[in-house]
């Protein structure tokens, strides 16, 4: 075969080969281990918008219930959206929303798991992004100025690099 | 026909009908106008990560070039991802990245346009989200703690509600 | 141009040309009119399964709310799924569920609208199918023997053939 | 990690956690076994419509051949369509159609197999649904009143719950 | 608005702006006209492989019928696959195959039409590519060395640039 | 179970069963081995078009960088596009472009790998096709007459049939 094995580039960005070309990195030799990633983020809104969401969750017009479904479905589309992500058979996706009236924010937290050769941080982040986007979409008729932020990986487990969690 | 026309719910969330059920809202009677939306957001990282991105943009390993493509393609997938979004024939998508070494951030700005019955704020936000996700993916091997934020609509034009821009 | 215009085949199946080859039929000369289609269907289950659904709709575990979202998203994927369907910019999708304890069934009804050159019967039927599939998926842990049926177009409006409704 | 393991809810609907929130259920600890599911369904039409289909299958205008392809491709899209379905690497999809002139129906039967942690009932049902939808689409120009029904799982094999088949 | 209008770059590649960044070019001001594109291509194989295809088309095992469906469906996915393509509501897709025993080739020809602001050359080319890929897939068990080639646009009509056809 | 095992048809086309019906062939009993496929192809253009590409690759307007991303993403969509392809969890995708000024061509070469039950020839070919399509799209404003060709599998490794490479 004429293509030599992937060589990690000098600067540590594994999505590029030694000549600087993007590729979907070779994970064929990595171990299949149980992998978990947790990501989170938030959306900040007017207090009256949050009040409408809270009213809806209690009875009808369930903004967060719909955002949860969108987030779960979004996690499954990650490798379609992020160019160099490997397709993965996810074994679990759980998405939680919490509301904070003091800061007038909705917090989203996604936990994704698989048993495979690569981690699921991107899937967890995608779930959070699509979940927050859907909250925005559902509420934009009353509040165009909502801001999404603090979207990050919180912890990961499994794989060669082992456990990691944000230090805050 | 037995289904009565959509009635806006009391709380202003147009994605729910008068009985609180989610629907893709009727836009059949809306005008086809030129619609523009601009969204933006950022990703904060370690200075050394930003340095690698800046080096790559100048020659090989073009993180931001790849993120731009992902953002443009993401805008086209919006109605697949956000449950109640209408499918739209976009007429323009432009995505810019700017880097700020003082704050160690990459800023993404997406402008989306169409000539149609609904606005393109969600498409612009999706472009920004997928663009930032791709930057995260490309750099996560060297910096897992990157944080995405300040993701919001900056301005919109066209449609019944006319022009709007963030006041900051 | 060497390809002659589509000629309707002798047997009336417009998805085949005069030589019997499948094609996506030419609708370029059709009028853009307001088009509406309503489809419906049902899923039959054990009374105790329906009781669980009814309990969930009232508070948590909202089977029908999730099925409604899946149905709406499914309508948007119709032209990806049905080979010779034209892609269409839907202007409205509304999905209702009704439960009937006497017959132990959940009924699904979808109304889809567009302003375009072809009808939206397939989109309405796809919404019903995916809505019922999702009810099945959510309840299969307690009732594998559920049966879906009576899935049909109920009425359509707009286009050259005008109004039509099922006579029953 | 802060998220506790999935606890089966009291009512047996495993797609909801103990607090009633939807999730893609954790299958990480399930065995990878050979799993098979068979689903079936039918579409009822006017005798003259069935006659056209039967004529086409014999020579040109092959309605059932196209519906078979759509059904197979539909099975592969299941986890994109049904919100809480796990993505699965299918190892076999076979779809058969039979026609019954006495009842003026076309019967569709799909058998799907995988070697994995969850069953393939949803994939088999999706194949049947999309197969029947495509028959409807191909014939609707001559028969709008066709009705789809008797769509159900016929048998399943593999997994913790072992073999199951419909008792009728 | 802060983003200046797209300026054509000096080298004529309209998919890049004046600063060399890729974008989905602004077509908002272009006329909606009837647009047609025809593309073609071929796949070369062993004579005995072509003999099998020819036998199948006559009765069972219809390679070209399946490839035609894949080609039509592929045309609808063009804007998902080609990064800077605009999504378009196609109004017609027709795909023909011809076989040539003298050269042991199968020729594929796709005609795509829309009424819109951009042309459909990419959709016609995608249809041809996916059609030929499917022929390869169906026959690869007996002939791995098949070669696809001569894939090109043959003619286009409509739009500002008017009619064009290959001169050969 | 009522469906008998797949029997290879007399003519060797494994995508059809013994009765000539298309199916996604059963690979459940095949070994999971490391599988590699390499495909290649080219696009021929005017020398001045190639000159623009070469200028862009050196600094801005990176046609080949964008085509590489499209090719990698295309490889991941193969089972959505080719009707009877099995979905596969790819472990590596690498795409290289080479330019030849003497023949005024751009050559694309894709190497795809997985650890699974079926080969990845189709994924490698799809990557090449989408890569070349994207080059066409990026350059069509200056050169409509470009021709794609010589698209073929170059070598494969792994699986029951073992190693194979083109003899030329």
UniProtKB/TrEMBL annotation, chains A, B, C, D, E, F:
UniProt binding sites for substrate: 84-86, 122-123
CDD domains per record: MoaC_PE
GO biological process, alphabetically ordered: Mo-molybdopterin cofactor biosynthetic process
Keywords: Lyase, Molybdenum cofactor biosynthesis
Pathway as given in its UniProt record: Cofactor biosynthesis; molybdopterin biosynthesis
Active site: 137
Pfam families per UniProt: MoaC
Chain ranges of the Molybdopterin cofactor biosynthesis C (MoaC) domain: 24-159
HAMAP family reported in the protein's UniProt record: MoaC_B
Protein name: Cyclic pyranopterin monophosphate synthase
